[in-house]
Known about the structure:
The structure holds 2 protein chains of 2 kinds.
Chain A: H1 3-29, E1 39-45, E2 51-58, H2 62-90, H3 111-127, H4 132-194, H5 199-215, E3 218-222, E4 228-232, E5 237-240, E6 242-243, E7 246-247, E8 264-265, E9 268-269, H6 283-312, E10 331-332, H7 348-351, E11 353-354, H8 368-371, H9 394-404, E12 406-408, E13 418-420, H10 421-461, H11 465-499
Helix pairs in contact in A: 1-11, 2-5, 2-6, 2-10, 3-4, 3-9, 3-10, 4-5, 4-6, 6-10
Chain B: H1 8-13, H2 16-35, H3 41-45, H4 49-99, H5 107-125, E1 128-129, E2 132-133, H6 153-166, H7 180-193, H8 197-204, E3 213-217, E4 220-223, H9 233-246, H10 253-310, H11 314-340
Antiparallel strand pairs in B: 1-2, 3-4
Helix pairs in contact in B: 2-11, 4-5, 4-10, 5-9, 7-10, 9-10
Amino acid sequence: MSLSSTYSIISSAFASTAAQSSTIASNIANASTPGYVREIANQITNDYGGSDVVSISRQANVALLDQLNASTSESSTQSVISTALTTLAQSVNDSPNATSATGALQNGNSPSAMLGNLQSALTTYEASPSSEPAAAAVLTASQNLVSSLNAGAQAVSQAESQADQGMNGAVTKINSLLSQFQQANDAVVSGLQTGANVSQAQDQRDSVLTQLSQQLGVSTTTNANGSMSIYTDSGVTLFQDVPSTVSFAPTATFVSGVVGNAVTVNGIPITGASAPMAIQSGALAGYAQIRDTIAPQYGAQLDQIAGGLISAFAESDQSIPPTLPTVPGLFTAPGLTSVPVPSASEGLAAQLEVNPNVIPADGGSLNLLRDGGISNPGNPAYTYNTTGAASYTGRIQQMVTALGTSQPFDPTAGLGASASLTGYSTNSVSWLQATNQSASDAASYQSSLVSQASGALSNATGVNLDTEMNNMLNIENSYTSSAKLLTTVTAMFQALLQAA
Amino acid sequence: MTITSVSTLYLGNALIPTITQADAQLTQLETESTTGQYADLGVQLGESAGYELSLRNSDDLLQSLTTANSLVSGGLSTTDDALNSIVSGARSTLTQLLAWVPNSSSGANLGVTGDDAMQSLVTMANSSYDDQYVFGGINTGSSPMAAFTPGSAAETALSNDFQQQFGFSPTSAGASALTGAQVTSFLGGAFASEFSGANWTTNWSSASSTDTTAEISPGQTIQTSTNLNAGGFQPLSQAYAMLSMLGNSSLSGEAKQAVVTAATTLVNQGLSQFTAIGAQLGEAKSQITQANAEMSTQITLLNTQIGGLDNVNASQIATQLNTLTTQIESAYQITAQLQKLSLAQYLPA
C-alpha cells in the first residue's frame, strides 16, 4: 500500500461524488414532474479501495404502475359512461321544486310524466266531453308526449353518435400513442445494448403507457432485451416490437337499429357483441358500451312506449260484426296503416306523431277525440259516437282505461314482456336512473381509486426533497473530507520531499 | 409497520383532491339548502325515480279528478234545483186539482193550470249548466224538451188523436156529449200512447236515454245525470197536456172530472218517480263529496311520500355544511404548513 494509491482513491471519490450530485440534481429538478421515477446512483467499491458509480438505476415499481394503469382504465370507462348517462338522464329528470301555474308539481319532460299529464287531461275531458278547451288540453298533452318521445329518441341517437365520435378519437389517440411508445421502446432497447442511461426513455415509456391505459385497458410483459410488449386487457397484441394497426370506421348518422362499426386490432374486433376478445376497460370500452348497449337499450324502450301508445289508442271497427282491421288512431307514424306488434316497434319513438285529423291547425277536428274515427274521418265504421251526442264519454273512458291496461311489450328491451303503458314508462325511467346512479357511483369510486393508486406510485417511485437534501449534505461532507484528505496527503508528500 | 417514503410531489398535492371534492360537495349542498330538494334527483333516487314519478303522476291525476268533480257537482246541483222546482210545481198543481169542483164553468182554471205547469216543466227540463243541458242524457248539446204550444208536433199529434177517436175537436159543441167513461178510455188509450216509445222521442224529447257518467275517483265511475226519457217527465207532461188540452174545452163536468182524476193519478205517479231520481242523484252528490275527501287525504299522503323522496333534511344539510367548511379550512391550513415543512428551510445559506 503506497501513499500515492491514496491519490487514485481520492480521485475516484471525486468522480463518484460528481456522479452522485448529478443524480441528486436530476432528482431535485424533477421533484414536481409527474411520472418521474427517482434515479439512484449505484456505487460500489473498486479494486483498489476507491468508489465507482457503476450504473444509474430507477426506483421503479412495476406492480404499482400496473395497478395505476388498471384503475386509470377502469376509471375512464366509468367516467365516459357516467357522462353519457347524465346527458341521457337530463331528458327524464324532474325539475326540482318547480310548480306549474296551477300549483301542481312539475314532473319534468320524461315520456312517463307526459303520459301522466295526458291521463289527467283525458280525465278532465271525460268530465266535460263537450268542452272545446278540455279537448284542446288533451291534444296539447298528446303533442307534448310525442315531442318528449321524439326528443328522447334524438337524445339516444345523439348519445350513440357522440360515443362513435369518442371511439374514433380514442382510436386516433391510441395509434399515435403506440408510435410514441415505439420510439421510447427502441431507445430503451438500444440504450440497454450500449449501456447508456435509459431512465429517461423508460420514464417516457411508462408515461405513454399510462396515457394509453386511459384509452383502453392494457397489460404488459417485458422481454429479455428490455423491450416491452403491450396487450389489451382481453389479450389482443397491441405492440410487440412494432405497433399493431388499430382501425375504426365512424358511422355518419345514428337512427334506431343502426349498429356502429367495431374497432379492430390487426383485423381482430375488440368491441361489439361479436368480438371474441372484447376489451373490458378504458374510454374506448366505455364508449362502446354506451353506443352498443346502454343507449340502444334505452332507445328500444322508447320505441316500445311509442308502439304501446299507438296500440293503446288504436281504433277498432265499430260495425256489428266488425270486419275491418284495427288501425292507429290518435297516435300514429307517417305511412303507418296497421298497429305494429311489439317486436316491430323499431324507430317508432323518432317517427311518432299526433294524427293530423285531430289538429285544427291542420284542418282536423278536436271532436274526433270524443267521437272516434281519428284514423279515417271519412269512414263511419270507426266512429264510436254514432249519435253525435255532445256528452258521449264511451271513447274517452276507453282511452283512459287503455293507459292503465296491461299490454304486451318486447322483452328484449329489458323491461319485461307485459305491463301497463304508464307502468312501463315509469319502469323505463327507473331503469335509466338506476343505471345513471350506479355509473355515477362507480365513476366517483374509480376516480378515488386512481388518486390513491397514483399517490401510492408517487410515494414509491417519486422524489422526496428532504431525502435528496440529506444525501446532498452527506455528499458535501464526503467531498469536504476527500478534499481535506487530498491536502493532508499533499502536505505529507511535501514534508517527505523537503526532508529528502 | 412499514415505513414508506413519501414523495414531495404527493405531499404537496395530497390535499388537493380532498379540497376539490369538498368544493363540489359544497356547491351541491348550497343548491340543496336553497331548493330544499336533492341537487340531482335522478342520481339520488336511481331505481326509485320511476316510483317517485308515478307518485307525482297519481298526484296530478287526483288533482284533475278533484277539479273535474267540481264541474260534475255543479251539474248535479243544477239538476237538483230543477228537480225541486218541478216537484214543487207538481205539488201545487196537485193542490189545485184536489180543490177543483166539478162544474163546467171552472174548466178555464184547469186549462190555465195545465198551461202554466207545462210551461214551467219545459223550462226546467231545458235547464243547463256550463252550456250543457242537464236532462239531455249524453246528448247535452241540444235542448231536450220541445215546447207544448198550439201547432207544436206534440200538440198536433194529440189533437189528431182526439179527432180520430171522436170525429170532432175538443172545443166543438159535440164534445159536450162525451161521457166520463169515454174520456177515460181515450186518455188511457191513444192519448197515453203519445207519451211513450217512439212517439215520445219524436214529438217531445230529443234527449238520449243514455245518462252521462263520470269517473269521480280512480276506478269509480258513477251516473251523474238523469234524462227526459226516464223518471217522472212522461207522466207529468201527460197530466199537464191533458189539463191544457181538455180543461178549457166543451167537455161536460163529468167528463172533466174524469180528466182531473186521470191527471191526479199521473201527477202522483210523476212525483214518486222524481223523488226516486232525486234520491239517486243526491246519492251521487254524496259519493262525490266522499270521493273528494278521500282524494284530498290521498293527495296529502302522496305529497308526504314525494317529499320524503325528494326533500333534504334541512338541519342535516346545515350540519354537513358546517363540517365541510371546517374540513376545507383545515385542509388549507395543513397544505400551507406542509409547504413550509422542508429541510431546505433549515439549511444555512
